[in-house]
Amino acid sequence: MDAEGxxxxxxxxxxxxxSEAELTQLIERGNKNxxxxxxxxxxASSRSxxxxxLCVSQPGRAMTSKLSLIDLAGSERxxxxxxxxxxxxxxxxxxxSLLALSKCI
Length: 105
What we know:
Blueprint: H1 20-32, E1 36-37, E2 45-46, E3 50-57, E4 64-71, H2 78-81, H3 85-104
Antiparallel strand pairs: 1-2, 3-4
């Protein structure tokens, strides 16, 4: 958290877009940067979290709307997903981060 008590996400950036096409392009770029891997439970299990926050405002109006979309990495039981080695360590870190997130919420 920063000095004002707001959550700070390392690497997060604010990008101003003025069209639906620009927003779509940013979402596609973000999806390409996601990490996925096959497990016994899912052929393309997401191995990273993604957060997209849209702040919509209109010139001349004091109102702003905020929409937060969050896609969390897959959390499969290690025994069901048959994870081992690097994938097992990854699953532990995902579960650890989900536990930390639940404490924040």
